[in-house]
Specification:
By secondary structure, this protein is an all-alpha fold. Helix 7 packs antiparallel against helix 8 and helix 11 runs antiparallel to helix 17. It starts with 10 loop residues before the first helix and ends with a helix. The chain has a single domain, classed as Up-down Bundle (Growth Hormone, Chain: A), CATH 1.20.1250.20. Helix content is 81%, strand content 0%. It contains 18 helices and no strands.
């Protein structure tokens, strides 16, 4: 475990700062769905155009996460977080003046995606993993993961109120101001690049070691399904409900309820990961997601069924985070945890790209989201099967260092 370089940078202070950063970064990111209708109406854009920019954001986020993680591992998380916050703020500000699809792709897609890669899970979880003992690590990761859910729960109603009261452009400026608060919080994360278990291992050696391990690939592809589910539901559920005749406020409530119950789910699966098999926990989580979506599609759509779906899906939402990140630390150690979790997170974001964009394409082609819901059900079952053969045993190098 790392020793903080300043007496104020205790493990507890790092966890609190991590929760605050994730709350801000993920909270603002999750407002993409409520900006869809006002922005497309204002510019005369199609949903596919808007969806593609958000899908691009997810893809850029994923592609740049391994590099952001490697920067944090090498130079410290503090510098990486400041750089990410600057790009994030710039992207949000430029969204207010983006008048074409190309400009919107560059602001909401490229810049915000780069900012997210340096201010969210791959960087933050590496710091938390290195500053908590193994027996408490899964719970600590679950607590920080819950921060993203709290951000979504708190930011979505505030974002909707800002859009209704001040307009979508002013709302983006205010949200950009919130992201700027990450800069002072980054001080608590400075100087936390990790220490090696055992002999000094290079980045290339760490990559080769992970690439030869089958469980690393199982984690990558199952996390892709998680990304598909969360991006598709978060971006398209509000519009799906409006299309069905429900109010925009109900869509906002459903997304906020997902965030609220994810707080409990992140705590729960973080607790499970510290006491039982993490891979079995992932298998159950993905299987229950498929069942929840299936029931939502089959049952008559009503306010009650919508809120029940949101609560159930929220409980299963990001429980994958402590389990997946915990498995990476458990199997491969914490020295290059930010980089390795960043690579696996790339799988998550490839799925996010597909879920966000495909939802818009399917809707524009068919006028319905039914086919997209069906794909989500099938992918959840595939992810459950991929999780079962994951071997949780630590590598000999990690076991030796722990001993």
């Amino acid at each position: 475990m790392n020793t903080p370089t300043h007496p104020w940078r205790t493990p507890l202070a790092i966890i609190i700062a991590s929760c605050a950063i994730i709350t801000l970064s993920m909270g603002v990111r999750q407002t993409g769905g409520i900006f869809m209708q006002p922005m497309t109406l204002a510019h005369g854009w199609s949903r596919e155009l808007y969806s593609f920019a958000i899908a691009l954001q997810n893809l850029v986020w994923g592609l740049s996460s391994p590099f952001s993680g490697a920067l944090a591992d090498r130079f410290g998380a503090g510098r990486t977080l400041v750089l990410g916050a600057v790009m994030y703020v710039l992207g949000l500000v430029l969204m207010t003046v983006s008048a074409s699809g190309v400009e919107f792709n560059l602001s909401a897609g490229l810049l915000v995606g780069l900012g997210l890669s340096a201010t969210t899970y791959s960087v933050i979880m590496g710091v938390v993993g290195r500053n908590t003992p193994p027996e408490k690590r899964s719970m600590a990761l679950g607590i920080v993961g819950a921060g993203g859910s709290f951000g979504q729960f708190a930011t979505l109603p505030a974002g909707q109120a800002l859009i209704s009261g001040l307009g979508w452009q002013a709302a983006l400026w205010i949200l950009a101001g919130g992201i700027a608060l990450i800069v002072p919080l980054a001080w608590y994360m400075a100087g936390n690049s990790g220490k090696t278990e055992g002999r000094q291992q290079s980045i290339l050696e760490a990559l080769k070691e992970a690439g030869r391990h089958p469980s690393f690939h199982f984690l990558f592809w199952s996390y892709l399904v998680c990304g598909f589910h969360t991006a598709f539901i978060m971006l398209h559920l509000p519009a799906y409900l409006v299309d069905a005749g429900f109010s925009a406020n109900l869509g906002m409530m459903a997304v906020a309820l997902i965030a609220l119950f994810n707080i409990f789910g992140s705590f729960f699966f973080g607790w499970v990961g510290g006491r039982a098999s993490k891979s079995r926990g992932l298998a159950w989580l993905y299987g229950l997601r498929s069942l929840t979506i299936l029931l939502f599609v089959l049952l008559p759509l009503s306010k009650v069924s919508i809120l029940l779906f949101a609560a159930a899906m929220g409980f299963l939402w990001l429980g994958t985070v402590p389990l997946t990140n915990g498995l990476v630390a458990q199997i491969f150690g914490v020295r290059y945890m930010s980089m390795l979790t960043g690579i696996i997170f790339l799988g998550h974001q490839i799925g996010s790209f597909a879920g966000a964009w495909m939802g818009g394409v399917i809707y524009d082609k068919t006028g319905s989201y039914l086919a997209a819901w069906s794909v989500a059900i099938g992918l959840g079952l595939v992810a459950a099967l991929l999780s079962l053969p994951i071997r949780e045993k630590a590598l000999a190098r990690v076991q030796s260092a722990t001993a």
